[in-house]
Amino acid sequence: MLAVQQLEAGYGESVILRNVTLRVEPGQVVCLLGRNGVGKTTLMKSIMGLLKARRGAVAYNGHELTKAAPGRRARSGIGYVPQGREIFGQLTVYENILVGLEASREKKAVRSIPEEAIAKFPVLPAMYSRRGGDLSGGQQQQLAFARALASKPDLLLLDEPCEGIQPSIVDDIRDVIRSIKADGKTSILLVEQSLDFVKSVGDYFYVLEKGAIAWEGGFEDLSDEVIKKYLTV
């Protein structure tokens, strides 16, 4: 599915990621952990092509994407919910979801918002005419999810989906991730600070430390020692 090999990336003269290698297999929920500022968002942007790799490779379903534009990566079946949501505040909820269809692999003539994109967020249809900027943080996060799901991605990148939202919406997002996982059609690469959250949904875990993978393993390997060494502030 997704293979990142010895990736190096950064901003200006600063190198943030150093020889990062990770994989996401079909149907997996892979969680990327680490303290603030270690490069998690930089890695997500590099996978999406929003930040060019200096070295290394990104491949998806056997196709080389290292130099591909973000649009091509999205149309290849990768959905992205960025940190901070980045919904379009002046567009309506309906228009925001339509934007997600630009990454659809279906012919434009037959494009329509798929039922599965909004079925997981039943509150959204009632808000179709509202501007995205008028929604609460939790509602905007649900909208960002629906926008990403509109293109029916095979892989979903989620960058801090629970950041700054109320506990009830966090529970809803957990249920959505579990539902996607149960469907078995879409893999997920998840960046999240809450250990309880990632433990409740994750299959495999990577820990970033100073821009490099410092540890990886399954749920049973995520010991208190690992948590204390790499994640405790």
UniProtKB/TrEMBL annotation:
SMART domains: AAA. One of its GO terms (molecular function) is ATP hydrolysis activity. Transmembrane segments: none annotated. The keyword Transport applies. GO terms for biological process: L-amino acid transport. It comes from the Bacteria. Residues 2-233 form the ABC transporter domain. InterPro entries: AAA+_ATPase, ABC_transporter-like_ATP-bd, ABC_transptr_urea_ATP-bd_UrtE, BCAA_Transport_ATP-bd_LivF, P-loop_NTPase. Keywords: Amino-acid transport, ATP-binding, Nucleotide-binding, Transport. The keyword Repeat does not apply. PANTHER family: HIGH-AFFINITY BRANCHED-CHAIN AMINO ACID TRANSPORT ATP-BINDING PROTEIN (PTHR43820:SF5), HIGH-AFFINITY BRANCHED-CHAIN AMINO ACID TRANSPORT ATP-BINDING PROTEIN LIVF (PTHR43820). Belongs to the ABC transporter superfamily. This is Urea transport system ATP-binding protein. It comes from Paenibacillus catalpae.
